[in-house]
Design brief:
- By secondary structure, the protein is α/β, with parallel strands linked by helices.
- It is elongated and about 80 Å long.
- The protein has helices at about 10-15, 50-60, 85-90, 105-120, 125-140, 145-150, 155-165, 170-175, 180-190, 195-205, 210-215, 220-235, 240-250, 275-285, and strands at about 25-30, 35, 70-75, 75-80, 95-105, 255-260, 265-270.
- Helix 4 (about 105-120) packs antiparallel against helix 5.
- The strands form two sheets. A five-stranded mixed beta sheet has the order 1-5-3-4-2.
- It folds into three domains: about 10-125, Conserved hypothetical protein from pyrococcus furiosus pfu- 392566-001, ParB domain (Alpha-Beta Complex); about 165-215, no CATH class; about 225-285, no CATH class.
């Protein structure tokens, strides 16, 4: 039964037409594990020892059922396109040779294949996934919509993950270590000082909701903002205030309209509290999420 939720993946890079796909050389064959090496662009940086041992036990009992996808790397060596986890587990299981499928692809294309295959099939942590998407965008010019199609994720998910790459290194390390979840990381993006806020989240074992409240709570500005808004509301005409209220109820977010004299010019400010509200607003305005 086909696995649901995957995008076009490897097919998206290799091409739909048979002529566009690099042909396998002699089909599946066996190679020494020592002749194979990981791809330096593998998005997964850490492999859980328990999961590897479990896979190794399965391989020891039933063999390696799925070949490892590799490419020639020169001097009789091969680089892994897809299947590094299986390659590592096979060695733990004591295998000296593993079944492989050799693809004649260029190094750049191989890295792109590895990124997409691993994002689809491996349980990456949020930062590994975010960094993989960023490499696809930076190195191969992929737009969020193209990445989403290739890996079988929504466009909004890919866009939100890409934002995580803007976090400070110490916060990224906390996410990599599992101290912060993706929800925590997304909330910290709007913090004035993400590093300080992250320390409070970890030390206080805060939930995602509590983290959102933490980063949105700015007591120094709260009083001044309330006074400023109250003065602005008092100087607005009844029609403007009514329009603001209608938009608030319709959009579910704060709306502020400012008119400039009798020129007909002005500005409208839409304020969202979290990324979900932003995504919903974009869907309403553009007909699709970001």
């Amino acid at each position: 039964m086909a696995k649901k939720g995957l995008g076009r993946g490897l097919e998206a890079i290799l091409g739909d037409a048979p002529a566009a796909a690099p042909a396998a050389r002699d089909g599946v064959r066996e190679l020494d594990v020592s002749d194979i090496e990981p791809d330096k662009d593998q998005p997964r940086k850490a492999f859980a020892e328990e999961e590897l041992q479990s896979l190794a036990d399965s391989i020891a009992a039933r063999g390696l059922l799925q070949p490892i996808l590799i490419r020639p790397a020169g001097q009789g060596r091969y680089a892994i396109i897809a299947g590094e986890r299986r390659w590592r587990a096979a060695q733990k299981a004591g295998l000296h040779k593993v079944p492989v499928l050799i693809k004649e692809v260029e190094e750049g294309t191989s890295a792109e294949l590895a990124l997409i295959e691993n994002v689809q099939r491996v349980d990456l942590n949020p930062m590994e996934e975010a960094d993989a998407y960023q490499r696809l965008a930076d190195r191969y010019g992929k737009k969020p919509a193209e990445i989403a199609e290739a890996v079988g994720k929504s466009r909004s998910h890919v866009a939100n993950m890409l934002r995580l790459t803007g976090l400070p290194d110490d916060v990224r390390a906390m996410v990599m270590a599992g101290e912060l979840s993706m929800g925590h990381a997304r909330a910290l993006l709007s913090a004035d000082d993400p590093s300080s806020a992250a320390q409070k989240v970890v030390s206080g074992d805060l939930s995602v909701r509590a983290t959102e409240r933490l980063v949105s709570d700015k007591p120094d500005k709260a009083g001044a903002d309330k006074v400023k808004k109250a003065v602005a509301r008092a100087t607005k005409d009844a029609d403007t205030r009514a329009l603001e209220q209608d938009l608030r109820e319709s959009l579910g977010i704060e709306v502020d309209i400012t008119r400039k004299g009798q020129t007909g010019q002005g500005k409208m400010v839409l304020s969202y509290q979290n990324l979900d509200q932003l995504d919903d607003l974009c869907r309403r305005l553009m007909g699709s999420s970001i």
